[in-house]
Amino acid sequence: MAGVDRLGGMNPWAVLGGGLAAIALLAGAYVVGRGDGQAIEQGKQATATRAVAEERAAREQRVDQVGAGAVQAEAQRTNTMTEVRHEIERITVDRPVYRNVCIDADGVRALDHAAAAANGEDPGIGPAAAGAAPAAAPPG
């Protein structure tokens, strides 16, 4: 019988060889499993990348459509824009408006009267009213 020593036990070399074969099988299974895991993860990543690319393409298409709509609306607005011109009527005054004196003598009297009334003074009607008698009542 091979692998059994004379004392009835197992041959140590056979046990060592079996152990090494088991370790080699475990290492092979680990490497194959790791490769399968990487392939699965790469497939998931490729799927996610493809989904992102499709979403990006769909959004870019929507942006292009909106941009085309905006260009069309701008073109339509430009075509419907109308130009409005206002004509200003010029009025000529027969007397000069701007002189060294801003207001005439009647205006100065009116301003003096308003200032005196605002200050609580009784300015009267004008310079002629200061020395004149009060007006008579109308007949009636």
Q: Could you give the count of β-strands?
A: 0
Number of helices: 3
Return the average pLDDT rounded to an integer: 78
Largest sheet: none
Poorly predicted runs of 5 or more residues: 128-133
Rg result: 56 Å
Written as H for each helix and E for each strand, in order along the chain, the element string is HHH
Overall outline: rod-shaped
Helix content: 55-70%
Percent of residues in β-strands:
under 5%
The structural class is: mainly alpha
- Distance between termini? 167 Å
Textual characterization of the structure:
The structure is a single chain. This protein has helices at residues 12-80, 105-118, 127-131. With 140 residues, the chain is mostly helical. It has three helices and no strands. Mean pLDDT is 78; it is low at 128-133.
Characterize this entry briefly:
This protein has 140 residues and is an all-alpha fold. The chain is built from 3 helices and no strands. It has helices at 12-80, 105-118, 127-131.
Secondary-structure blueprint of this entry?
Blueprint: H1 12-80, H2 105-118, H3 127-131
Provide tags for this entry:
single chain, mainly alpha, 3 helices
